[in-house]
Amino acid sequence: MSTESSLDSGIQEPGKDAQLRADALDYHRSPTRGKIEVVATKPLSNQRDLSLAYSPGVAYACEEIAADPAMAAEYTSRGNLVAVISNGTAVLGLGNIGPLASKPVMEGKGCLFKKFAGVDVFDLELAENDPDKLIDAIAMLEPTVGGINLEDIKAPECFYIEKKLSERMKIPVFHDDQHGTAIISSAALLNALKVVGKDIGSVKLAASGAGAAAIACLDMMVSMGVKRENIFVTDSKGVIWRGREASMEANKARFAQETEARTLADIVRDADVFLGCSTAGVLTGEMVKTMADRPVILALANPEPEIRPEVAKAARPDCIVATGRSDYPNQVNNVLCFPYIFRGALDCGATRITEEMKLACVSAIAELTQAEANDAVAAAYAGQDLRFGPDYIIPKPFDPRLMAAIAPSVAAAAEASGVAARPITDMDAYRERLAAMIYHTSFFMRPVFAKARAKPRRVAYAEGFDARVLRAVQTVVDEGLAQPVLIGRGPDIEQAIRDAGLRMRRDADYTLVECGDDTTACGTRLLASGKVDALICGMQGSYDSHLAHVQRDIGLAPGAQVMAAMNALVLDKGTLFITDTYVNDQPSAEELAAIARMASEELRQFGLEPKAALLSHSIFGSSSRPSAQRVREAREILAREAPGLDVIGEVHGDAALDENIRAIYLPDGQPNFEGSANLLVMPSLDSANILFNVLKVSSGKGVTVGPILLGAAKSVHILSPSATVRRIVNMTALAVADVKDA
Ligand SMILES: NC(=O)C1=CN([C@@H]2O[C@H](COP(=O)(O)OP(=O)(O)OC[C@H]3O[C@@H](n4cnc5c(N)ncnc54)[C@H](OP(=O)(O)O)[C@@H]3O)[C@@H](O)[C@H]2O)C=CC1
Ligand SMILES: CC(=O)C(=O)O
Ligand SMILES: [Mg+2]
What we know:
By secondary structure, the protein is α/β, with parallel strands linked by helices. Helix content is 44%, strand content 13%. The strands form 4 sheets. Strands 7-6-5-8-9-10 form a 6-stranded mixed beta sheet, with helices on both faces. Strands 18-17-19-16-15-20 form a 6-stranded mixed beta sheet, sandwiched between helices. Residues 151-152, 176-177 line the site of magnesium ion.
């Protein structure tokens, strides 16, 4: 079967999947090719840096490691570096598509390691099918990395390869498809059985697949209490029964049953649990109908499960279904495990992954699902019912608590099982460090999206004919973020939708408002009259021309002194908000204070606690020039009028971001906060706009959001002609989140 036909085999909504395919290819191709890059973490800009980083300075680091190998964790990045290795023999459910074609998956695993747990990855796709040669090649990497994550290597070779490598290497070796899947599916099973009130010791389990994932899942489920005699397994040849001769290697033989059953339909009858780690569509609705009461179906094949949830539910409304996919409830996928088990293992210098560490992972994941959703999670998934139950037997992949829940448990279990070379001495401090790490990176837009999804509003797009706007609106429709209203000439918009190959339909998915010329004026009138709740404009023409309409038709919010613009940049070290990037030339002290207050309020939309810095060429009174005095005065106003706000000033840019630099200048009694500022209030329009654009380009890949218009009476944002589709989607979500109920 070709890759394409295997992918197509389960497609149920051709239009949607064709769009997803186009979007996925575009995601992989642009703006840069692939999904990862290597970034230097140290400055290397002058002769001195060169002599530290390279010869002669580097030799000192080499000597230290030669004298004590443990020093490699101090002087190199090895301690945070994992090799994701595949030979491409069992890539997702696509089969043996080879190492080169497996690379997008391995790069993807690298992204997840980095984004979810801050772990660096080299993805290594090796053209080698001989297990012993593969073992030799991988074992040679021990000086390079702190851990080995084997991926998509087919059974039965994978069992031998992992065993031999674990014996040979003094770093954690983990076959993700085996143990990651086993951990997460065991946690899901424990929780699902709790929901349906069944005893693990008496359930009948029918499995489809007897490869890497299935065998490891079954082994772990046996260790959790499922009785071996209650487990029935099929592979591509049918039921694994005692006496069968074909394809009966040891790992399968362990699960062979004395039985007359020969097909999946035979073993599924009366089963309480179905475990699928095989291939698309093998479980039918008819089979599900024959299962026991309240059956639990873990259909984990990727990208297309053994059965789609809607088919299973139609057959048996009382079932609990989980798949490996992110577009259904109950995503049972090893992404919930591998980033965090390695985080814990690397942080304590584990020399291998023990059974205790795996079981600690299972408990942490199972318990986290049952814990009350805290504010951060509720905000991240607003509108979704996150109460433990049939549609929530496993945490969501974007649950920001995962790392702090799993990694410390893994590290503690590593220490208890005697494999932690560098045990964690202060667990509370470790948990806090992990939590801080996670809130800096991937979770930036989630609270905003969740809020938008919970209450999608009518958002008008002044440039309803622009191809980028239309692509963004398609995503907005698909993700249920807003009810779009497109402004422009109807025939032009409809032609542009056809040209872009989009699926959205007039009146069903979007409303059209006919407008010939000044579409922003039309938009602001719609907004002022309450016919829409929010407006996005600015894709064409100057910022000021759009602002003039907003100022005339919408005006200031009650209590606001000025309008101002803010841009956000999500950088590796955290998110920075910069203001005022577009509106006020030289804000007065009162205006600066007002801008700082409005901007701080807006940061809370992102679930962030604002830490504002009023920036200047002066630091804590070092200059008496008028511009420094103006900024100092703004801080005094804030101290009087908003005493609860964390604000420092006036400060240099470096001191705003680095508390050590700040400490050098800090006079006694000067208000201060810990760590880095996340809101930079700039003294002038030029400085704000220049700083933002320079950072945006020099950081290369930072996500940017904005310009966010502050101070208007209604929710309106004026974008710039360089806005990307992604920015428009983000700004739509923010515009919806910003709508205030009358
Ligand atoms: N959700 C998740 O987190 C994960 C999901 N998976 C998914 O699990 C599946 C298997 O992966 P993996 O174990 O690594 O791959 P393997 O190649 O090691 O195993 C595949 C297994 O599926 C069996 N199989 C193939 N076709 C059928 C069929 N028609 N009926 C019954 N069994 C069949 C094979 O049988 P035979 O032994 O006879 O060849 C083999 O036992 C993939 O779809 C993968 O995407 C994997 C890891 C994680
Ligand atoms: C999720 C995963 O690792 C797989 O499907 O192979
Ligand atoms: Mg895999």
